[in-house]
Structures are given as structure tokens and as C-alpha cells.
Amino acid sequence: MIKAYILDTNVLLHDPLSIQSFEENTVVIPAVVLEEIDTKKRLTDEIGRNAREVARILDKLRTKGKLHEGVELPGSGRLIVELNHRSHDQLEKHGLEKTNDNRILAIALNMMEEAENSQNIVLVTKDALLRVKADALEVHAEDYLTDRVAQFDHIYKGYSEEWMDSDTMDRLFQKKNLRLIEAGIKTTLPHHFYIFRDLSNPSRSALAMADEKMEKIDLFLGESDGIWGIRPRNVQQRMAMELLTRKDIPLVTLVGKAGTGKTLLSLACGMYLTEDMHQYKKLLVCRPVVPVGKDIGYLPGEKDEKLRPWMQPIYDNLEFLFNTNKATELEDILAGMSSVQVEALTYIRGRSIPDQYIIIDEAQNLTKHEVKTIITRVGEGSKIVLMGDPKQIDHPYLDEYTNGLSYVIERMKHADISGHMKFEKGERSGLAQLAADLL
């Protein structure tokens, strides 16, 4: 049965292509939504870009006919721009003021009166309070879920724990590798890690890693001596260090709670490959400029001085790696090396970045479009590492389902040039681990 989906402004600003996500049903865009989108089109951020994209899509559809009468969408379905041809009596009836949200609700109520089955009228909004208000007025409301990926708790981990009989484990240690069938594995993903435990002796274990062709697993011993004074403290860090130092894996994603060692481990591996091994010409470290809590406003000084408060977490880790006590010591070291560059993501569009080790910290605050823009900047011979905690999102329009980091992990896990690791154990301090678990 054909349904009518009424889209709120935040749905279109979140995903301009959402109008094509409702199959053969009718998509209704209230005129007040167009008014709100019009106020956003001059913004220079992601919201402004999406507002302009919505305008272009609607303008193209306008060539097919009058939007207020309805036009066919590409593929299937219809689009109608609803001008609220009926009065606002429904608002007055329920004692509601003529706010933009209430005007959208009024259209839903009017369409429900005209429909044969009121359950076929659905309001789609990412505004939880509007869904609550709609529920009070007996309007069926839903969140926009089409672009969601796996919830963080169910996101791809990059490794799995399996049981293996003693004879098979002996062959793995002897031959150093096994075909998937020999190891009792039906399917796998490129660069997926396995923690095998002996069925007859659970204290005996082996680490293995699937190759990029997903034909066999190789015995993995891991790095135990450490890099740049940083030794892996748990098995996830050992496996992540393998991904971070492999030239043939140009895309690495890392997720984990605060204090699990993502940034420090990545910086250590980046410094090692750049300064010691000379595999890359430069180490580029970037973070999105998204504040926690209230923004501190404009900052004085030149670009580097303005960025310093935002980039301070990176400098903290570099001070630890270089074992410096004063900020001026680190600045002198970085000035002398000239191969380490720390900057915000604001200036990355239009760049081509070849032969560099690129670290993107706090990638959970990036949108799908932003993360695509960043990865498409990567040139020949470069490696990019995206890391973050999807549980700690400061971006007002993202959540653990829709952020760019989770999106990349789920979309790229089948690619033979990518690797992923989910950190489980915090190593910063006992207090940090307890806070990450309980707060």
C-alpha cells in the first residue's frame, strides 16, 4: 500500500538524497521546510552544502512538472511540495502556536483527515521532541534510518576469537600459515585477525591474520620490542601496530574508548616510518575543529596560534614521545625536523597529499561527505589512519550510527587495502578506564 512520508527539514539537511529513499511511496515536502532550507543555503559548512544540494535536486525535478501537483521521482515514487492548502484550524484546535514545527504537524494532521487510512501518513524527522509531540497528536512519526550503519557495540571489530584443536594449532606453528579450510574457517575479511585457543588447553593460544586475498591465514607474532619507546600493552595494540606499519595497507581505522592508546600508537608508528624508515616524506596529523561544550569563540594570533588549543591533544602525545618537559622544547624539535605537520581539517579540500603518513584524530565528528572528501585527498604512496570513539560525538548532527568513522569501517571492511581494529582495554590509567566504563 502506498504511503506518504512527510520530511522534516533536518532530514533533508542530513541527507539531500533522502527523497529517493522511500521506494514507490510518496514523499511530501512542506513549504515551510523549503523556507527553513533557504535560510541555510549561505552557510559555508556541511549544512550549507546540503541545503544547496537540496535546492539543485528540486530545481531539476521542477522540469518534470509542477512540484505542488506532484512529479515522478527517478526510479520510483512521487514527490509533492505541500503548500498547506488547508487552514491552520488543526493547530488552534490543539492549542498550538504557528511555529515551523507545528506547521509541519498541521500538514500531517490535514493529510490524515483526507487519507482513507491515517496510518499511511508518516512524519519523518530526526528531531526527537517533534516525534514526541507528533505521538501526542496521534501522528505516526519515525526517525530517518536509511543511512545508518551498525551500532557501535555491533560494529566490525577487526578480530575474532576462535577455538582450534591441538593438531591444527601444531600445524599452524610448524607451517606458519594455513588455508581457510584447514583452519576450519568458512569466510573471512582481508587483514582480519584471529585469536585461536586450544580446545584441550585453553591457556595455549595462537595469533593469525588473514591475507588480502582471503585464501589463507598467516601466523602472527606481532611486535614486542616496541616502536619509539611505545610497547603494545595488550593483544589489540599488537595487532593494530601491524596494521599501522604495513605499507600495503593504506587505509587503517581504529576505534576504542578514551585512553585505549589509539593516538599515541598511531603517532609512534607514523614517526617510525617517517623518521627512521623514510617510507614517507611527512607525517600529517589533523583533527576536526568541533568544540566540547560551549565554543570559546574567536582566538587571537596567526593560524598556528589559533589552532594550538584545538591541536593540544596531539601535542600532548608528541611531548610524551619526545620526552620533553617544556612546550618550547617540542616546538624546537618539530621546527628542526620539518617533517611533522599538525593542522585542522578545515584546509584539506582541494589538496593532493602523496607520500605522507596521515593521521585523522577524532574522526567520529566527521560526516560521511567530509570523510569521503578527506580520503579522496590521499595521493600515491600515502597511508591514512582514521581513529576515534563513536561513543564520544560532539557534532550536533551526528550519532554513533551516522558518523563518518563508522561509515568508513562498514563500507571499507571488504577492501583488500584496508584494515581495522577495535580497542577494548584502556591503558591511560585505572581511573580513565573506570570513567570510560561507568560514566
UniProtKB/TrEMBL annotation:
InterPro entries: P-loop_NTPase, PhoH, PhoH2-like, PIN-like_dom_sf, PIN_dom. GO terms for cellular component: cytosol. Gene3D superfamilies: 5'-nuclease (3.40.50.1010), P-loop containing nucleotide triphosphate hydrolases (3.40.50.300). The keyword Cell inner membrane does not apply. GO terms for molecular function: ATP binding. Pfam families: PhoH, PIN_4. The keyword ATP-binding applies. Keywords: ATP-binding, Nucleotide-binding. Residues 3-132 form the PIN domain. In the N-terminal section; belongs to the PINc/VapC protein family. This is PhoH family protein. It comes from Alkalicoccus halolimnae.
